[in-house]
Amino acid sequence: MAKVTLFPQACKGMEDCGICALVCPQHLFTSSGEMNEAGYVPTRLTEPEECTGCQSCMLSCPDMAIVVVKEKGEEAS
Amino acid sequence: MKAAVRLKPGTHFIEGNLALAEGAIAAGCRFMAGYPITPASEIPNRLSQLLPTVGGVFLQTEDEIAAICSAIGASWAGLKAMTATSGPGVSLMQENIGLAASTETPLVIVDVMRFGPSTGVPSVGLAGDVVQVARGSHGDYQIIALCPESPQEMYDHMIRAFNLAERFRCPVFVLPDGFIGHMREQVVIPPDQEIELAQRKIAPAGTTPLERQDFLDPEVAPMPVFGRGRQAHVTSSCHNGQGMRNLTDPEVMHAFATMPIEKILRHRDQIVEVAADYAPGDVVIVAYGTVARSARAAAQAARAQGLAVGTLCLKTLWPFADQEVAAAAQQARAVLVLENNTGQMLPYIKAEAAAHCPVQFLGPRLLGQIHEPNAVLTRVKEMMS
Amino acid sequence: MSLAEHPLRKYTRPHVKKTTTCPGCGNGIVAQAILWAIDELNREEGLSMDDFVFVSGIGCSAWIPSPLFAADTLHTTHGRPIAFATGVKLGLPRQKVLVASGDGDLAAIGGNHLIHAARRNIDLTVVMVNNGIYGMTGGQTAPTTPRGLNTITSPYGTMEPEFNVAAMVAAAGAPYVARWTTYHPRQLKRAIKKGIQKQGFSFIEAISQCPVQYGRVSKLGRATAILEHFRDHSLKLAKAREMSEEELAGKITVGEFCDRQAPELASQWSELRARLGKEQG
User: Fold this and answer.
1) Looking at residues B312-339, what average pLDDT do you find?
2) C5–A67 C-beta distance less than 8 A
3) Which of B221, C140, C145, C260 is the most buried (most CB within 10 A)?
4) How far apart are CA B374 and CA B377, in angstroms?
């Protein structure tokens, strides 16, 4: 299990960037459909519980908009 | 080699470039970067011997651009830093002279001037860089330039140059020509304890740039030198008083360009130095550097013949001694400008003097040769007749 | 969730909320790789941002540390960051000095400083973001642009071969040289960490995407398409060494070009000063 935190205010969007969607082995990222203050449409996770905690999206996000914390055993609170 | 030893206090008969290197060490210089070039090479030669013995570093760089850049880096590391070169090297350094001025970096640049343009004549002195040091980098900025006329002043001006650089956080030039660089003359070296040294003010610890004024203070901001946890933000881009990049606010742009100038001009009385020896009604010979020696010799000869001739020798070229030149011209019968070039400082001198009295220019008979005092005397007599 | 919750935000200036890069730009990936490497060194060796000075030149990637990183940062003139960093390191030998800049900055206008810093073996970590193009000025050809590519200033295709910068730096004597792409953020982070730990000149080339300019002239388009290109064309150095030049055409060789020990300049200066009986004042 893993806890994924998104920072939509820092995201530059699925349409313009979309790197998280490319590198996610589970194909969990999609567009949120809602514009942020900067005018980008950030990504969101479709099925957070499917995240394996590989952190590829976190390491590949150019805008520090994703944090993935691997959690051992118990589910994220 | 064994550890080199500084010249002892006392009277020596030494070359100008050597006196300058000894002066740099006495001034507290602990970093020099340079690239070999005639007629300045004796300076890195000597400092490469001395610097490691006083805890400093000498770096021979791949070119003069790297020399000035690494000296600026060392200054931000907290060391008193310098480079030394000649005209072609200054031409290469120009972009980063502007960076040093706009990032308010204390730095001493020695330019032992030689006959140009282009490669020219490396071993012949000529005051060919007096304007390029002040106006050669792009944009508006202000530097300080000192102009020694003897090996003794090579020593003395280095101490003053470092003190001014530390006091005003700016690049300071020392501008001998190749004649002074290679001239051997008596030099008196004082004991260290008699030399007054200035140290830069340093920004307080434990603060971030947003809590400080690191730049653009007309009274000179304390410097947030690196390595002390100050999170200094230093940029060549237009920046505000905190050093933060701002490329949109016209007020910031104006302050970025004008404050580092204002900082120096506001204190020009602490910087500008002249040696004035004239009386009302004199023909006043205005000169600087090597040629000041000819000016004095000519004035002495004239006075011996009962002629009213005085001198105004500029010890600093920048900021320009505008008030001092104007004051001399107001009392003078006429002004004769001597320069060992085709008249680079003449427009600046004329701008102050021409409203008050006639101004004439005299170059040496052959460019690159020093004026013969007799030739100067002949011209003075013509002006009087 | 406040931006400050991101674990890397403790290494960034709090007032810098936004990155200045275009959407999908690789500079942010490299910035993070640097900060994750420092984060590991923080946990393992107690290094903090106060132990670093970051130096950069001119170009988009020169803005990686400046103003983002909460440390001493020195943003300089085009091509010269290594020269500035050399002075900083010699003046503050205990600080870690890291240069982050682009291929135009470090390999074109500043190429000679790069060669000589590698030759001197001064303890700097140089991270060169190589996007194969002049991005900030609008898509002009770079010494790193692949031969044949039509750019703004090579409208009929570049006639010049691209510069193998990592191999050149290794040949100049650098003890640690690695190349990865922004598709390899883990390897990039490890290489940067190793470079920071290495006593000596280390050079990490990060092949990176410029979706706006390179994406346009290469017709690859978006950031993700360029990253897919990196994924599909990257080749480990060990394998590449067994292949012919023809077979290697269009490939990106990645891995460690060298990892060796050599006498380092700043420490030799410290030894000389000690020998001459004085410590640096």
Assistant:
1) 98
2) yes
3) C145
4) 5
- Domain definitions of chain A by residue range: 2-70
Q: Where are the alpha helices (DSSP H) in chain C?
A: 27-45, 81-91, 103, 111-120, 165-171, 185-197, 214-217, 223-233, 237-240, 245-248, 265-275
Average pLDDT of the residues in B217-243: 98
Q: Strand order of the sheet with strand B57-60?
A: B57-60, B31-34, B81-85, B107-111, B171-174, B144-146, B316-318
Predicted-complex ipTM score: 0.97
Across the range C62-85, mean pLDDT stands at: 97
Report the residue of chain A nearest C9, measured CA to CA.
A64
Of C85, C94, C276, the CB nearest to B52: C276
pLDDT surpasses 70 at B171: yes
User: Where does A2-70 sit in CATH, by number?
Assistant: 3.30.70.20
Among residues C75, C94, C275, the alpha carbon closest in space to that of B78 is found at C94
The encoded tokens of residue B224 equal 């947030």
The type of residue at B17 is N
| Pairwise CA distance, residues C93 & C272, whole Å | 13
Is B151 within the bounds of a domain?
yes
Handedness of CA C64, C68, C73, C78 (dihedral sign): positive
pLDDT digits (tens, 9 = 90+) for C237-270: 999 999 999 999 999 999 999 999 999 999 999 9
CATH number, domain with residue B350: 3.40.50.920
Task: For residue B130, tell me if it sits in a domain.
Answer: yes
> In one letter, which amino acid is C23?
P
The residues, ordered by sequence, that sit 6+ positions from B45 with a Cβ below 8 Å of its Cβ are none
Mutation target for C interface from B30, B48, B57, B141: give the one with most C CBs within 10 A. B57
How many B×C Cβ pairs under 8 Å? 150
Contact C88 B245 (CB under 8 A): no
- Residue A71 — pLDDT band, cuts 50, 70, 90? confident
Q: How far is CA B152 from the centre of its chain?
A: 15
Position B103 pLDDT exceeds 90: yes
Residues B31 and B172 both lie in one domain: yes
Q: What is the mean pLDDT of chain C?
A: 96
The backbone torsions φ and ψ at residue B331, rounded to the nearest 5 degrees and listed phi first, read -95, -15
Average pLDDT over residues A43-69: 96
Closest alpha carbon within chain A to C18: A10
Strands B233-235 and C72-75: parallel
CATH of the domain at B80: 3.40.50.970
Q: Do both B154 and B290 map to the same domain?
A: no
Distance CA C34, CA B340 (A): 54
Q: Distance from CA of residue A50 to its chain's centroid? A: 12
Residue C75 clears pLDDT 60, i.e. is over it? yes
Contact by Cβ (8 Å): B167, B263: no
pLDDT surpassing 80 at residue B190: yes
Domains and CATH numbers, chain C: 24-275 (3.40.50.970)
pLDDT of residue A75 exceeding 60: no
Query: How do residues C141-194 score in pLDDT, each as one tens digit?
Result: 999 999 999 999 999 999 999 999 999 999 999 999 999 999 999 999 999 999
Give the pLDDT band (50/70/90) at residue C1. confident
Q: How far apart are CA C24 and CA C222, in angstroms?
A: 8
